[in-house]
Specification:
The chain is built from 15 helices and 34 strands. By secondary structure, it is of the alpha+beta class. It has 4 domains: 399 residues, Alpha/Beta hydrolase fold, catalytic domain (Rossmann fold), CATH 3.40.50; 71 residues, SH3 Domains (SH3 type barrels, Roll); 94 residues, SH3 type barrels, CATH 2.30.30; 162 residues, endopeptidase fold (from Nostoc punctiforme), CATH 3.90.1720.10. A 10-stranded mixed beta sheet has the order 1-2-3-5-4-6-7-8-10-9. A 6-stranded antiparallel beta sheet has the order 28-33-29-30-31-32. Helix 12 packs across helix 13. It binds beta-D-galactopyranuronic acid (GTR). The site of beta-D-galactopyranuronic acid has 8 residues, from loops.
């Protein structure tokens, strides 16, 4: 970190730079706002290019086709015909933190001022980024939103270093920048004066960053070469480069935003650079969110006349010729998919064509639907001040072309909805996780009770969750308890019990030890009105299975651990079926003997695709449970399990005995010798993998010694790998790989439950 005297660095520049600012703002008056057409009935008929039809006529029907065919094609068209590209040159980049205050804004924020320096050897350019981050939030999500008048105009904060190309007074634009509101909502704000990248005037080419790309003058820029909007978009991405290096920033949640011409730049940057987690356009209008083909309000003719330095020269050919545009702006918005996109308009901002901005968002929504997201739900514009907050969001508010508190409220609500991490803890003994939000969809995984999950998305009563495995799939809302990050941290830190029996029950009352025929559990919940026997009030709350976690009250009453279920109920688990989680985790011993005897507890359990509990397991579910119940987390899938631990050579001769057709060698002695050779290095507890000769893994089991292994195939069973043995596994010839997990450590990819932040608080 280099702290420098900013006054020395920046003040000398100020005097020479005021003129650029004046001209940029003054130029607006040169436009024909009054004479423009605002009459919908005078819009010439037009046909928008179909966002989901590729130029060769291919109809795009899947996210893969969108990403591989249509998206690159559209990116090229926007580069070639509208914004222009920037040469790919190598540059030296450095970041200096000129100033940092951990007690900014009365102690609620950390302020950093970062100078970014770009140099190609011959030319050097600098840009100054002002960053506020919530003081106590850990890694913060950030709104990256460039400013029009200089960093010092964003807030009255006396320590903001003025931007090099502005003499605007401190705090001049605070109405557009509710910094404290943003911080209070848990977000950071990063901003750069946009002049730092391109001083917004047609004859300021040489002061801009363009010479960094080797240009001496604007004349040297080819017809498809980028100008100011591409330069600002480039600047947004360079700011992102820095944010990715800042340990206080959650770079996976940077929201790019811009107003007006900077809305155009933010959209163009967000379209190209998928590191931006969400994209917000405010009143970006013509060349931004609004459809050009509508020719209402500002037109291609007008914008390219007044701002000849914004777009590439190729764009000029579409003046009054919008029909021949190969793309329109809904396709720019679509390039943001599937990331959250928000378009904001203002009722009196007719120049920016609010309706055209809305329709553009509506048409872009087609691509979001391809990804299974709801976009703009209808082609009818919403009422004024009634935001739509689907994955594509939109509002039209009362008022003029501006950025208001209302806009920020909506941006924050939108970011909260789509980017705030949501957590939950699973509440069912084995929570069934499906690949799609539908009961008929394939089962992907099971999560045991008490597993902390991140909630990524929701559809009706379905929640898409990411488990610590990690595995992403859908479960029902009743199967998880949603919690704030603070509640989750408290939950992780709280005492818990782990169910160590295969199956057990949570009761409404302590049940005491099992007592044969007179066992109170046998009549639980049974009201025998006329039997003369009193109703004991005992009810089953739910079942639990091996590995389930439940918050422990600290009391053990009449042979039962008292638990506080996440539903709020108090329950009782027979003490012989559970242990205190923390002491259990400490004494776990994942030895071969323990792993194998745990796996043996699953013998006879039916094979269940996606199963990861005693209720049913698939092959990797069995191995995962055998280790989990001994305190070790393995990856969910067999193919990933094949990459952890240490490799053990099986030296399979798949040339002679191809894995896919090994059954035909079963009777031959050479094959028996081959299998004896393959197992010669194995030790009990090794994971053995089955797959194709090409190495694709499709099955996993646990070697138990003497040529035998335990695995889930039709049911959990023990088989021999050696041909001729009565319990020979007919697909043994597919055994092509082995890994030793026992004795390996975190550097080999195995994680102990005690070291996992999903289970225990870490330092
Ligand atoms: C206007 C221009 C608009 C919009 C706006 C702004 O003069 O016509 O396209 O970009 O400036 O950036 O404030």
């Amino acid at each position: 970190m280099i702290f420098r005297n900013w006054k020395k660095t920046y003040w000398p520049f100020r005097a020479i730079l005021i003129s650029g600012c004046m001209l940029a703002c003054g130029s607006v008056s040169a436009q024909n706002h009054e004479e423009a057409n605002y009459d919908e009935s005078k819009i010439p008929p037009y046909t928008l290019p179909a966002v989901l039809t590729a130029s060769d006529g291919t109809v795009i029907g899947s996210p893969e086709e969108w990403e591989n065919i249509r998206r690159p094609e559209l990116l090229d068209l926007f580069t070639e015909e509208i914004y222009g590209g920037l040469p790919d040159v190598s540059m030296d980049v450095s970041y200096d933190i000129l100033e940092q205050d951990n007690e900014a804004l009365g102690g609620k924020a950390v302020r950093k001022q970062v100078e970014m320096t770009f140099s190609n050897g011959a030319v050097t350019r600098k840009a100054l980024m002002l960053i506020y981050l919530p003081a106590s939030a850990g890694k913060a999500p950030v709104f990256l939103h460039f400013n029009f008048q200089g960093n010092q105009t964003v807030s009255e904060d006396p320590d903001i270093i003025p931007s090099q190309y502005s003499r605007r007074p401190r705090g001049n634009q605070t109405n557009r920048w509710p910094v404290e509101k943003i911080i209070d909502a848990g977000y950071g704000l990063a901003t750069v004066h946009y002049f730092d990248f391109y001083l917004d005037r047609k004859d300021n080419f040489t002061e801009s960053i363009m010479p960094l790309f080797g240009y001496g003058s604007a004349d040297e820029v080819p017809d498809n070469g980028g100008m100011a909007i591409s330069a600002w978009a480039w600047g947004y991405s360079r700011a992102m480069d820095y944010l990715e290096t800042d340990k206080d920033v959650d770079a996976s949640r940077v929201i790019i935003a811009g107003h007006s011409r900077l809305g155009k730049a933010a959209l163009w940057a967000g379209a190209q650079d998928t590191r931006f987690a969400a994209v917000i356009s405010n009143d970006s209008g013509c060349g931004g969110a609004a459809l050009s083909m509508r020719r209402i309000g500002e037109t291609v003719n007008e914008i390219t006349k007044v701002f000849p330095h914004w777009f590439c020269r190729n764009f000029l050919q579409y003046r009054w010729n919008e029909d021949s545009l190969p793309v329109d702006q809904h396709e720019l918005l679509a390039l943001v998919a599937p990331r959250p996109l928000y378009v904001a308009s203002a009722e009196e901002d007719r120049w920016a064509d609010p309706r055209g901005e809305f329709l553009s968002a509506w048409h872009a929504s087609e691509v979001y639907r391809l990804y299974g997201y709801e976009g703009i739900p209808s082609a009818d514009m919403p009422e004024v001040n009634s935001p739509v907050m689907q994955r594509v969001g939109y509002h039209i508010r009362t008022g003029i072309h501006d950025v208001t508190d209302y806009d920020w409220d909506c941006f924050i609500a939108f970011a909260d909805k789509w980017l705030k991490p949501r957590f939950g803890v699973t509440t069912l003994s084995a929570n069934y996780l499906r690949e799609e939000p539908d009961f008929t969809a394939e089962l992907g995984n099971q999560a045991l009770m008490g597993t902390v999950v991140e909630i990524i998305d929701e559809k009706d009563y379905w929640r898409q969750v990411k488990t610590p495995d990690p595995y992403t799939a859908w479960c029902v809302d009743l199967g998880i308890k949603e919690m704030s990050d603070k509640e989750v941290a408290d939950y992780i830190g709280a005492d818990k019990i782990i169910c160590t029996a295969d199956y057990s029950t949570v009761w409404t009352k302590p049940v005491g030890p099992a007592r044969g025929r007179s066992d109170v559990r046998k009549t639980a919940g049974v009201k025998m009105k006329n039997s003369g026997r009193p109703d004991n009030g005992l009810q089953k709350i739910c079942d639990i299975v091996a590995g389930d976690l439940l918050p422990y009250s600290g009391k053990t009453v009449k042979g039962c651990h008292e638990v506080r279920l996440l539903s709020g109920e108090t329950g009782y688990v027979p003490a012989e079926d559970a242990e205190i989680f923390s002491s259990w985790a400490q004494k776990c011993d994942p030895s071969a003997e323990n792993i194998i005897s745990t796996a043996m507890r699953f013998i006879g359990v039916p094979y269940f695709w996606g199963g990861t509990s005693i209720k049913g397991v698939d092959c990797s579910g069995l191995t995962r449970m055998a280790w989990f119940l001994n305190g070790i987390l393995l990856p969910r899938n067999a193919s990933d399990q094949a990459d952890i631990g240490c490799p053990i050579s099986v030296d399979a001769d798949t040339g002679r005995f191809p894995a896919d057709s090994s059954e035909r060698f079963i009777g031959c002695d050479a094959f028996r010798q081959e299998m004896l050779h393959r197992i010669s290095n194995l030790q009990p507890g090794d994971l053995i993998f089955f797959g194709s000769s090409a190495g694709n893994i499709s099955h996993v089991g646990i070697y138990i010694g003497d040529g035998r292994f335990i695995h889930a195939s039709k049911l959990v069973r023990i088989n021999s790998l050696i041909p001729g043995e009565p319990d020979f596994y007919e697909l043994s010839g597919k055994m092509i790989k082995a890994r030793r997990i026992i004795g390996s450590n975190a550097s080999d990819g195995t994680v102990s439950i005690s070291d996992s932040p999903a289970y225990f608080p870490q330092e």
